[in-house]
Design a protein that fits this description.
The chain contains three helices and twelve strands; from the N terminus they run αβββββββββαβββα. With 194 residues, the chain is an alpha+beta fold. It has two domains: 47 residues; 143 residues, Jelly Rolls (Sandwich). Helix 1 runs antiparallel to helix 3.
Length: 194
């Protein structure tokens, strides 16, 4: 009886654990052409998907934007830059959704001189923004927009999307029926032996 119970328990654990085994897919795009962002101009990064779409049976689990060495040229001025998610930046004026407002507030004064070190910027999209991104990706046209309030500089930008298989978690009723079936099989085996 103990061996049968252990065997049935191992099968049940294997069935429950299997849906959670998945491998994530990561896709990144890099832009090194938007390194000088002047005040008074909107900048578009028309992300070229290059035929890439969300893999079949997967969903976006995270997306984020990294900007290396982002800096505002005016030290004692806490300027900002709005960053947008854009749909269809290739034709006409795209619909834009505000992702984040970057505020350059890391400047300080040392020996009478203002110092404003560059910083690495990282932004994780929210679930609502990921839902919009998914729609834009399915239309094969998305981009990132920048609206600086002052002159900003950077060395590069990287936009990354991480997808993963949608786990198929058995519903409670299915688990209950399966458990009852396994217990019935164990009970029949005991009756047959006795």
């Amino acid at each position: 009886m103990k061996a049968t119970s252990r065997f049935l328990m191992a099968i049940l654990v294997g069935i429950l654990a299997f849906p959670f085994v998945a491998q994530a897919t990561t896709k990144s795009w890099t832009n090194t052409s938007l390194t000088s962002l002047a005040h008074g101009t909107d900048y578009l990064w028309k992300v070229d998907q290059g035929g890439w779409f969300i893999p079949e049976g997967e969903t976006i689990v995270s997306a984020y934007l990294d900007i290396t060495a982002l800096n505002n040229w005016r030290e004692p001025d806490p300027d900002y830059m709005n960053i947008y998610l854009l749909n269809n930046p290739y034709y006409g004026w795209p619909t834009k959704t505000l992702l984040d407002t970057f505020r350059d507030e890391n400047w300080y004064r040392s020996n009478g001189t203002y110092i404003n070190p560059a910083e690495n910027y990282h932004y994780d999209l929210t679930l609502e923004q990921i839902a919009l991104l998914t729609d834009y990706l399915n239309d094969a046209r998305f981009g990132i927009g920048f609206d600086p309030n002052c002159h900003y500089s950077d060395t590069d930008m990287i936009f990354t999307i991480v997808t993963d298989k949608v786990p198929t978690v058995p519903e409670p009723a299915t688990l209950l029926l399966m458990g009852l079936g396994l217990l019935s099989i164990a009970g029949l085996k005991v009756r047959i032996k006795s």
